[in-house]
Write a sequence for this structure.
């Protein structure tokens, strides 16, 4: 075995929030951050006609429109599924696609979902890729750290699914090393539990604001502990499922627990959640739109349900199976916000009061519905004092 060099004490790890002029610090000044949760995967849970598509050009245009409206964030999921596992015809990789959008945007932050244990990715790769994208995006790029909840995805990479909490142990080891590589001015070496090791590792340039933005999506104890130590933002789900009433009832305790976990070790983190917005000028028009989406929904054996057939040990979605929570309508998103512009604003303000710091918005017909949000709902959010 190669002898590892002796290590100096780690440097202090600064985060983008430590820099008042960083894109993250600017975003944190908003009472309620706004983002878009892109469909880089061809989502097909309903046959109601829609312009939405997985293609890069469509989604880049959505992000540019969101940026023009003053949104702070753009996210997307990434999945690794076998043939027939996706809803529709294709799925782009969020790491590559969101990184590429840095070249066609100027202010919006771009958060790439990465399954950090698949491969396994070497910390030198993550550190070098991340620093490169950080410079291209001028501090606007970040990683949504996920560890892989589906057995079939791990199996695609040649092994059995790693136990849930052990995944976070390995992710913590990985990001301890990645952060050292982002901050060390000298060569760095490491060997631990993971199948990789680093001998005299070094990367340059260093990120502009300490490190790229770090996010993780979680609902479990192990994931919350990880977020408290590493993340700037936690992408959460509603413990009460997708119905807004149950979400508003269960979120206050959940967000308080997450923020207290960070404060207990001297850190502050923000929370994001993913509502789908269904809105029209009147209640009648709104109900007609929502009902049409549901009326055209594919059945459990039809198109749009491929990825739901695979085993998952994720904790975040368990609220949807709890009989005491009100069921949603199957409109997409983690929670469903349905109503006139005024009613949408009331529900978003109510979410803010539960401890939610930002919303990653989804729409059924993404581009035109985002335009509607910008024209009819955003001005009311500003009047309500949750947007500056």
């Amino acid at each position: 075995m190669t002898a590892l060099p002796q290590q100096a004490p780690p440097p202090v790890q600064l985060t983008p929030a430590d820099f008042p002029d960083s894109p993250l610090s600017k975003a944190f000044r908003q009472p309620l951050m706004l983002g878009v949760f892109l469909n880089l995967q061809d989502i097909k849970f309903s046959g109601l006609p829609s312009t939405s598509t997985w293609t890069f050009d469509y989604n880049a245009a959505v992000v540019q429109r969101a940026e023009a409206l003053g949104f702070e964030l753009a996210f997307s999921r990434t999945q690794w599924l076998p043939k027939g596992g996706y809803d529709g015809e294709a799925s782009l990789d969020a790491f590559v696609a969101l990184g590429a959008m840095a070249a066609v945007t100027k202010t919006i932050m771009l958060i790439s979902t990465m399954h950090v244990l698949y491969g396994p990715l070497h910390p030198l790769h993550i550190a070098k890729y991340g620093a490169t994208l950080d410079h291209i995006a001028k501090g606007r790029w970040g990683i949504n750290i996920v560890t892989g909840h589906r057995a079939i995805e791990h199996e695609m990479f040649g092994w059995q699914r790693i136990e849930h909490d052990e995944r976070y142990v390995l992710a913590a080891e990985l990001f301890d090393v990645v952060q050292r590589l982002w901050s060390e001015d000298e060569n760095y070496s490491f060997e631990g539990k993971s199948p990789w090791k680093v001998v005299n590792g070094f990367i340059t340039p260093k990120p502009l604001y300490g490190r790229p933005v770090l996010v993780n999506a979680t609902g479990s104890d192990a994931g919350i502990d990880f977020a408290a130590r590493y993340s700037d933002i936690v992408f959460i789900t509603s413990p009460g499922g997708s119905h807004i009433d149950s979400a508003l009832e269960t979120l206050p305790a959940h967000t308080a627990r997450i923020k207290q976990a960070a404060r207990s070790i001297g850190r502050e983190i923000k929370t994001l959640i993913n509502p789908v917005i269904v809105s029209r000028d009147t209640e009648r028009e709104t109900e007609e739109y929502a009902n049409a989406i549901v009326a055209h929904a594919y059945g459990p054996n039809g198109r749009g349900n491929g990825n739901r057939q695979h085993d998952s040990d994720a904790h975040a979605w368990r609220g949807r199976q709890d009989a005491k929570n009100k069921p949603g309508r199957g409109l997409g998103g983690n929670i469903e916000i349905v109503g006139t512009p005024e009613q949408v604003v009331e529900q978003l303000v109510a979410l803010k009061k539960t401890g939610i710091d930002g919303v990653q918005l989804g729409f059924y017909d993404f581009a035109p519905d985002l335009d509607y949000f910008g024209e009819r709902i955003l001005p009311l959010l500003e009047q309500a004092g949750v947007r500056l």
The chain has one domain: 16-383. The chain has eleven helices and twelve strands. The first helix runs from residue 23 to 28.
